[in-house]
Specification:
Elements (H helix, E strand, L loop, with lengths): L4 E7 L5 H12 L4 E3 L8 E8 L6 H4 L4 E9 L1 E3 L8 E3 L8 H10 L2 E5 L8 E2 L2 E2 H6 L9 E12 L11 E9 L5 H12 L3 E11 L2 E2 L6 H6 L1 H4 L1 E2 H8 L1 E4 L2 H8 L4 E2 L9 E4 L5 E6 L4 E7 L4
Parallel strand pairs: 3-12, 15-17
Antiparallel strand pairs: 1-3, 1-14, 2-3, 4-11, 4-12, 5-6, 7-10, 8-9, 10-11, 12-13, 16-19, 17-18, 18-19
């Protein structure tokens, strides 16, 4: 039986996103599984997977805003800008003033130009940047525009110990797609003149999919059918919904355009048929409504 829909997984630490996809393929009995945005092995939290026909939904989910909670350690740097890389000592961060930290956080909030970490998965001349770094190349990626919608930081309750010259900050950020939180950690440390890197990262939300919807892989294994969010429900949770008449559904399935339902919308719209099935993702930004993708009947 086909399990068309989304899996919202709470990714465990130490797993790559590909590891999670491979496990989901086995549990759901299909090769057609993909994800809507990578999480590093160190990171935990919301990882959205598409199963079978729902893999076509992933194109529209990748660009959704995301929310993270993390810990940034000031006073140390890392080759990878996180705890997975070789860590070097920076300047003593224990004397940093709250006002200086707040000003540095504010400078990294809003629309900014961010230089991704050199060990990211971004391709340079067809080769992943992290592969070039691991082969000994010195890679500096160009900056690109991202949006940090919110960035809050407070001193972590656990300080000192084996890192007496460092200062840990508990942070929460809401960011546009393509923003690297470890690059924010690096840049915050640079702005304060002490160095910084990420020591923990948890994604709490992708669009409207949050941790309340997320399941462990063990829970999926116990009942894959119940774990998969049906396509219509998954689309309705992420996008505005348009209820289609039988005539409109038929027209869309034949590749025709239909009358726009209201004012123009730049965001994708989920077109749901009279039977409750997801028919198409719609583009209502023009004079008429057209389909961005049409889903075959289940």
């Amino acid at each position: 039986m086909s399990l068309d829909g989304l899996l919202v997984i709470d990714k465990p630490a130490g797993w790559t996103s590909h590891d999670v996809v491979a496990r989901a393929r086995r549990l759901c009995g299909t090769r057609r599984v993909g994800h809507a945005g990578t999480l590093d092995p160190m990171a935990t939290g919301v990882l959205v997977l598409g199963v079978d026909r729902a893999t076509k939904l992933l194109t529209f989910l990748v660009g959704l805003d995301k929310t993270y909670v993390a810990t940034i350690r000031l006073g140390q740097t890392s080759v990878t800008d996180d705890a997975e890389g070789e860590v070097a000592t920076g300047a003593d961060a224990t004397g940093l003033l709250e006002g200086d930290i707040s000003a540095a956080v504010a400078s990294l909030t809003g629309e900014i130009a961010q230089r991704p970490s050199s060990v990211s998965a971004i391709k340079v001349d067809g080769v992943r940047s992290y592969s070039r770094v691991r082969s000994g190349e010195d890679v500096t990626l160009p900056t690109r525009p991202v949006t940090v919608r919110t960035f809050t930081a407070s001193r972590s309750a656990s300080q000192g110990g084996e890192h007496p010259r460092t200062l840990d900050l508990d942070v929460e950020v809401e960011v546009s797609s393509g923003t690297y939180v470890r690059a924010l950690a690096r840049d915050l440390g640079q702005a304060l003149g002490v160095g910084g890197h990420l020591t923990s990262l948890r994604r709490t939300r992708v669009g409207r999919y949050d941790l309340d919807m997320a399941l462990t892989l063990d829970a999926v294994e116990a009942d894959p059918g119940a774990a998969v969010v049906p396509m219509a429900d998954a689309a309705a949770a992420a996008f505005a919904v348009r209820r289609l008449t039988e005539e409109e559904e038929l027209a869309l399935r034949y590749g025709q355009r239909i009358e726009r339902s209201g004012e123009r919308q730049n965001e994708p719209v989920a077109g749901i048929g009279a039977s409750g099935e997801l028919v198409a993702i719609l583009d209502e930004s023009g004079e008429e409504t057209r389909s961005r993708v049409v889903f075959p009947r289940g």
